[in-house]
């Protein structure tokens, strides 16, 4: 596995990370044993960046990861943890809490569930509109000084918020959606991150399976986020799958899968961009890791651009209510 560094101040890490949300939440039922086997396979392949959130399955995901990591030397992996999303017992979303006292409380519970004495990168999952980012980052910085956190990260914030955060404490990376059909960060966010020495950990690199090459219309069911995602609805879905068909021709010519080309494209955007793949099964993980062996030259990149031009996706990446809460999407 190739390695990189998360920004100017962050840790060394594998060039691909494993996102574990789907093992507990948002995409319907998952198999616990297969999830643990997938985490083991990732670690054995050299993937040492494990990403989670304390609200994934209301703590289930952290407990699952703790089980998978049991007996592994702590230096073998980096834990990236998001916090702050508030949820009810019916799995509903109730808002976000970025207050300093909440930051420290969330952290205490995550350390306990994960069974570790520190978290490598700790980040608010969203910007709390009622709490200045300086206060939230300042609280994490206190936990860095206390030894409970190694590095500060952010998620889904815009360029202005990123600048304000960096003024308080160095930021290792910004976790944000970035893929062939979600390229909004290229306008302001990515240039600001590079100016400030902040890496990008890109989630949604396969747009929740839409551009994986494996999607079929019958997949989204009850309890699956994609059942209400704009890009998976009606004419939007048909238009987006036409983009996938065009990308498949490029992949076939390269002797690769659609998913591998999509992930390789993200990796080709720079060593400061680390794709976090949400594989829930070992076969999907193996396919994703194959992207690291694909070298895309200028001709390949031009062919991909023709197949999936910037801005070609039909539908927003989240429903309107969720988009309104994304600091990264504000002008």
From TrEMBL:
InterPro entries: Aldo-Keto_reductase, NAD(P)_OxRdtase_dom_sf, NADP_OxRdtase_dom. One of its GO terms (cellular component) is cytoplasm. Coiled coil: none annotated. One of its GO terms (molecular function) is oxidoreductase activity. The keyword Translocase does not apply. The keyword Chaperone does not apply. Keywords: Oxidoreductase. It holds the Pfam family Aldo_ket_red. Residues 15-307 form the NADP-dependent oxidoreductase domain. This is Aldo/keto reductase.
């Amino acid at each position: 596995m190739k390695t990189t560094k998360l920004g100017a101040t962050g840790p060394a890490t594998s060039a691909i990370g494993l996102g574990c949300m789907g093992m507990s939440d948002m995409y319907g039922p998952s198999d616990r044993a297969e999830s643990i086997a997938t985490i083991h396979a990732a670690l054995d392949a050299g993937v040492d960046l494990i990403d989670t959130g304390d609200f994934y399955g209301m703590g289930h995901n952290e407990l699952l990861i703790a089980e998978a990591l049991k007996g592994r030397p702590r230096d073998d992996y980096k834990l990236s943890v998001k916090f702050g999303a508030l949820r009810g017992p019916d799995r509903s979303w109730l808002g976000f809490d970025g207050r300093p006292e909440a930051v420290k409380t969330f952290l205490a519970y995550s350390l306990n569930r994960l069974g570790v004495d520190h978290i490598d990168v700790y980040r608010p999952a969203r910007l709390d509109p009622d709490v200045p980012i300086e206060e939230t980052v300042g609280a994490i910085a206190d936990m860095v000084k206390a030894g409970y956190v190694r590095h500060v990260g952010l998620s889904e914030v815009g360029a202005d918020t990123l600048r304000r955060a960096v003024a308080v404490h160095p930021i290792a990376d910004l976790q944000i959606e970035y893929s062939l059909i979600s390229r909004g960060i290229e306008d302001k966010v990515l240039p600001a991150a590079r100016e400030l020495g902040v890496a990008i950990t890109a989630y949604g690199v396969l747009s929740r399976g839409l551009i994986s090459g494996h999607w079929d219309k019958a997949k989204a069911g009850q309890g699956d986020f994609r059942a209400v995602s704009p890009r998976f609805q009606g004419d939007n879905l048909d238009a987006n799958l036409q983009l996938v068909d065009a990308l498949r021709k490029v992949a076939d010519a390269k002797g690769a899968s659609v998913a591998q080309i999509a992930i390789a494209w993200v990796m080709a955007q720079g060593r400061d961009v680390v794709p976090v793949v949400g594989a829930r099964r070992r076969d999907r993980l193996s396919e994703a890791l194959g992207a690291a062996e694909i070298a895309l030259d200028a001709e390949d990149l031009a062919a991909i651009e023709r197949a999936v031009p910037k801005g070609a996706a039909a539908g927003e990446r989240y429903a309107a209510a969720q988009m309104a809460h994304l600091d990264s999407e504000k002008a």
